[in-house]
Automatic annotation (TrEMBL):
It comes from Usitatibacter rugosus. Residues 227-253 are annotated as: Disordered. GO terms for molecular function: uronate dehydrogenase activity. InterPro entries: Epimerase_deHydtase (IPR001509), NAD(P)-bd_dom_sf (IPR036291). It holds the Pfam family Epimerase. It comes from the Bacteria. SUPFAM superfamilies: NAD(P)-binding Rossmann-fold domains. This is Uronate dehydrogenase. Residues 9-166 form the NAD-dependent epimerase/dehydratase domain. Keywords: NAD, Oxidoreductase.
Amino acid sequence: MIPKYERLLLTGAAGMLGQVLRPAMRTWATHLRVSDIEPLGPAVGNEECVTCDLADEGAVRVLMDGVDGVVHMGGISVDKPWRTIVGPNIEGVYNLYESARIQGTKRIVFASSNHAIGFRKRTERIDADDPVRPDSLYGVSKVFGEAMSRFYFDRYGIESVCLRIGSSLPEPKDRRMLVTYLSFDDLITLVQRSLFAEKADHTIVFGASANRDSWWDNSKAANLGWTPKDNTEPFRAKKEAEPPVDSTKPEHIHQGGVYVTFGPYE
């Protein structure tokens, strides 16, 4: 592939999914800038390594200098007390988008989450236009990010693809993840299509592999041209052989699983 981007930025590059994406993204741009608040290790090939606290507005402004496109995986990735989440996930998202406006960045791929709609029941099938139902403070922060990206597209024309990532792990951990699982290979192709699709506008896409069962309709993200290849059938027998769960408990009624039970923290 001839690189489309002169300089891509990957935030959260030290996290699990950042580490999955980092090698692939080196081939998608002339320069790949990787960033995290945690140690990044040595730069490889065309990489530029930058330590950055997303809540530091000035640092994010410098981080975004010369950046054409962003894959934003940074921030708190699990539910925590609000004071822990607000810096990286609220202030950090504002800092990123405002810096994109100032620096002229063209496109952002924002790691949202299924927890933005986690209080939906498992009996429902929804699409990107259905109202959000966050299941946690973490989910609320992802709804905020989706709203921020919508505003910056409508007002300033910055294209965004919001990835409502299901469960991207080496393999599903439980029965719920037979539905929400997103393989690493499918994650990589989803991010690639989100960056390279001719027209992204403001798109919300559900990040799940081609699993037998689904709560999510991705037809409104057809502009990305993404088709997942993997599924959870190789794991089904193992997971369905595990002890049965109590289907009357909230964590087994709602799509967000155990996240609907977290808190209050104060």
